[in-house]
Amino acid sequence: MQWEVVxxxxxxxxxxxxxKIFSGASTAYGAEPNTQACAVDMALPGVLPVFNQxxxxxxxxxxxxxDAEIGKRSVFDRKNYFYPDSPKAYQxxxxxxxxxxxxxxxxxxxxxxxxxxxxxxxxxxxDAGKSLHENxxxxxxxxxxxxxxxxxxxxxxxxxxxxxxxxAYMKKIHSIVxxxxxxxxxxxxxxFRCDANVSIRPFGxxxxxxxxxxxxxxxxxxxxxxxxxxxxRQIEILESDGRIIQExxxxxxxxxxxxxxxxxxxxxxxxxxxxxxxxxIDISDEEIEKIRxxxxxxxxxxxxxxxxxxxxxxxDAGIIASNISLSDYFEILQAKTNDAKISANWLIGELSAYLxxxxxDITESPVSAENFAGLLxxxxxxxxxxxxxxxxxxxxxxxxxxxxxxxESKGLKQITDTxxxxxxxxxxxxxxxxxxxxxxxxxxxxxxxxxxxxxKASKGKANPGQVNQLLKQKLG
Amino acid sequence: xxxxxxxxxxxxxxxxxxAYYIIAPSxxxxxxxxxxxxxxxxxxxxxxxxxxxxxxTRGEGFGAEVxxxxxVGTYALSEGFYDAYYVKAQKIRRLISQDFSDxxxxxxVIMGPTAPNTAFKLxxxxxxxxxxxxxxxxxxxxxxxxxxxxSIPAGFANNMPVGLQIIGNYFSEEKLLNxxxxxxxxxxxxxxxxxx
Lengths: 476, 196
What we know:
Chain A has helices at about 55-65, 165-180, 220-240, 285-295, 300-310, 315-320, 325-335, 340-355, 370-380, 385-400, 405-410, 420-430, 435-440, 445-455, 465-475, and strands spanning about 5-15, 75, 75-80, 90-95, 105-110, 115-125, 130, 140-145, 150-155, 190-200, 210-215, 245-250, 255-265, 275, 280. By secondary structure, chain A is of the alpha+beta class. In chain A, the strands form four sheets. Chain A has an eight-stranded mixed sheet. In chain A, helix 5 (about 300-310) runs antiparallel to helix 6. The mean pLDDT of chain A is about 90. By secondary structure, chain B is an alpha+beta fold. Chain B has a three-stranded antiparallel sheet. In chain B, helix 4 packs across helix 6. The chains are: A alpha+beta, B alpha+beta. The interface of A and B includes residues 78, 87, 269 and 276 of A.
């Protein structure tokens, strides 16, 4: 039997607000436990939530970025359940009227084609605290620093047909939330996590199979492996005439297996109802348009613009457009050098190689875009060759300083004085009479040898174009 | 006093008590969940585990009426019952609120008895919560509509004090206080006590 895999994802992304969604406590990560939990986060009696407008703006931004309809009136609901890290014993979420309605994103498949994945909805909610088990033998510690951190839960349609598509979709959403600046997307710190709904059905069957939900998969790699082993498990059950039970399963990365957490029958009745402490949020078209103006250019638009305006290759444009910090850097280079090609080449080549080698992000580059442009301009105006530029770059990266100073102080300025280059060439030709003979006899590929010798003798400073030209003349 | 009296009808008032006793317990079932014995308030002795802590703390700490409301509210919000109870009660709430808004197109304040009966004896209705709830019928409509209301002494019936309720439109607390003040400038019920 040929099985078709059906996957839908629920992605939780923490919004990068300074304070919590319903209180003034800080959302910064990594503080001492319970130092960033105020009376509201601790659910002391009598406290009331106050909604953080920034969280609304960020949610709307996301909606606009995925071409979704915005919920003109969204309403907060309470999801009631007892759990130690949820001190109110309910989570404030949006069930009935979410802030973001139907939208879509395009993912690129392995064969290069694109596929549209529907986004059912996205809604605002608060994160829970954390249960700490280390350092508490036979007890559980509770850290409420995370309680009340704003989350945007992004729910997809069951549109994905393989683990690879699910990863591509998750990566796409990850890049969007980072690109529009609503989340740092830090998966180690839990800012970006996902649950996957997985089912299988015989190819050609219309009805969906019974699904299971895989909880809390926190890396792109785990999404792929968790889905793959769950699909295998389901196929095995169905092919041995078993039945899939609708349940929530937990992926265990250490054992590389999924195991049952609770079945549908054991599921909580969350008794959702509109939170009486919070008013519905009404947002006008005017406010939505104001937020639209804050949106950066989307990746696809940037990709197209880099190819049409700057004549970059699809590959180079793709690399640069995929990361907003990289494209910000590129655009400064382009503006300061007025040469997109050399900017892209050096950014993707020399600078990226250096950053990769030293595990640095582009935002941590030791050479600023302005200084890097200064270096490229010296190549463009023939002050130095590309080869020398690499040396200068190395100095700029490790010791700092501007290109001009380094070129000056190290005497790296390119030799463009024809007389000086001719003097070197004459010496080289005089020292290699045999090769000159052969060249003149028709072995013209020896030109490279003479160029190399000349460049070496000039310590790389001779202008390679001029060297070529003069050599050809002299060997005539 | 210079005021003119006009009779009005709030036609959905009879629905106020049933709606209120769905909505208030529903909220209360959720609001009181935070009293779990972990951070503050009563905590049971020697809990064996987390569930035991929750169950005994709440079982021992809450009184009968609170427990009744938590149970009623939990039921009303449960899957399969939510639309029939909670949603319906909210629709009634809207109708009640609309009745008041229509009335305030005609009059400045609404006056009437605070309760349908005078006070009952302590503990008298513990076994009959329904009739106890119904003694709130005139005030809870005001709560459901979200309006300001106040009660002032208005005499005695069978030597038991009777309250006069004054209800105003949204944000009209100043007017309410003025009306009550005028009433007391022209009456002395507030200075009297039941006969010994």
